[in-house]
Amino acid sequence: MRLLKSVSDIEGTGFAGSPTITVNGDDIFPDGAPSADLACRIYMTPNGFAGLPTMDQLTKALRDRGL
User: Fold this and answer.
1) Do the beta carbons of residue 18 and residue 39 sit within 8 Å?
2) What DSSP string describes 24-65?
3) CA distances (Å), 48 to each of 45, 51, 52, in order?
4) Among 9, 14, 36, 66, which one is least packed by beta carbons within 10 Å?
């Protein structure tokens, strides 16, 4: 977990809005566009847009990375 408090904190991180979920520095939902500002992130879920991926989406993304 990494707390980003300012725009300078996000430089070079691949941050795509909060929450950006990474494993070994890689965004596990790579369809997110990198942000140049502190912003919220939305995820497309089976029920529409949401502030977090579903547990099934999260599980699949982790399994796709061998975890």
Assistant:
1) yes
2) TTEESSTTSPP-SS--B--EEETTEEESS--HHHHHHHHHHT
3) 5, 10, 11
4) 66
Q: Taking the chain, what is the end-to-end CA distance rounded to the nearest angstrom?
A: 17
Enter the tokens of residue 50: 């949401």
Burial class (CB in 10 A: 0-12, 13-18, 19+), 45: middle
Burial of 29 (0-12, 13-18, 19+ CB in 10 A): middle
Q: What backbone torsions phi and psi does residue 49 show, to the nearest 5 degrees?
A: -70, 145
Q: Tell me which residue has tokens 């399994």.
A: 63
Task: State whether residue 17 is helix, strand or coil.
Answer: coil
